[in-house]
Write a structure and sequence with these properties.
This protein is α/β, with parallel strands linked by helices. It has two domains: about 80 residues, Orthogonal Bundle (Chemotaxis Receptor Methyltransferase Cher, domain 1), CATH 1.10.155.10; about 190 residues, Rossmann fold (3-Layer(aba) Sandwich). The protein is globular and about 60 Å long.
């Protein structure tokens, strides 16, 4: 074999890529078209080295023919998933949450207790953004109880989220007053890191969850669900199935926030538009 189909070194054959792509799509919903072959090859080389394999052919035999997939699956998914995130990403969603969603939800309750869910939380920027917003809202309004669940498929990013430690250069979008209240700076100025304050970290519970699971292991119903910028990697049928399951965990009148390029157009779902990529449960 020559060219791109060579098995020499750590180069991946088309057949091996097709087996891996089919597994990744079936397990996580993430599509892996042929254009992703070089990316998958590069990100999985570390897994080959950790097992002592000299080529992808041996690695794939270990996975698919010799029973290695069950133990290796989380490591593959961690390696190939993209975890772009930032604090206050798509800020208009958070303005809507404060100005419209929260007042509407609280008005319907005699004793307000709100449940929020960040359903693709990555390293934690989104749920901690929600936690800071809720803390500020409670400071002004008072007597507000709330809890935040944050889930992701990738264990590596969940570990970073639980720690709540971030490079100083990614907290720029957080308003200065919130930074003063809710971020802790390292005493060593040479290490430019911040940590989310304990009172904010305590309001967020992190857990692993696969959006492709037929049943979600979450408790009860949620008033607000954020699931942003992850469904773009899924095909249309999987998008609709995931959205139906998420809607099943929303209270009537609850709010679902999607990413700016995601839509429910032509899907049969119990949701109606409330704003740009914002929907309510009917």
């Amino acid at each position: 074999m020559t060219g791109q189909d060579s098995h020499d070194g750590f180069q991946m054959s088309r057949a091996d890529f097709n087996r891996l792509a089919a597994f990744i799509n079936g397990y996580s919903g993430i599509r892996m078209p042929p254009t992703k072959r070089v990316m998958v090859e590069g990100r999985l080389r570390k897994r080959l080295r950790s097992h002592g394999f000299r080529d992808f052919e041996s690695y794939c035999r270990y996975l698919f023919d010799n029973g290695g997939l069950e133990d290796e699956a989380p490591h593959i998914i961690d390696a190939v998933t993209t975890n772009k995130t930032e604090f206050f990403r798509e800020q208009e969603h958070f303005h809507f949450l404060v100005d419209q969603a929260l007042p509407s939800l609280i008005a319907e309750r005699n004793a307000p207790t709100l449940k929020l869910w960040s359903a693709a939380c990555s390293i934690g920027a989104e749920p901690y953004t929600l936690a800071m917003i809720m803390a500020d809202y409670a400071r002004v309004r008072g007597a507000l109880r709330y809890s935040i669940l944050a889930t992701d498929l990738c264990m590596e990013v969940l570990q970073k989220a639980v720690a709540g430690i971030y490079p100083e250069d990614i907290v720029g979008p957080i308003p200065m007053e919130m930074r003063r209240r809710y971020l802790l700076r390292r005493r060593d100025d040479a290490v430019r890191q911040v940590r989310i304050a304990p009172e904010i970290r305590r309001t967020v519970r992190f857990a692993r969850l696969n959006l492709m699971d037929e049943v979600y292991s979450v408790e009860g119903f949620y008033d607000v669900i954020f699931c942003r910028n992850v469904l773009i990697y899924f095909d249309r049928a999987d998008q609709e199935a995931v959205l139906r399951r998420l809607a099943g965990h929303l209270v009537p009148g609850g709010y679902l926030f999607l990413g700016h390029s995601e839509t429910i157009t032509n899907m049969s779902l119990p949701l109606q538009p409330a704003g740009p990529t914002i929907f309510t449960k009917v």
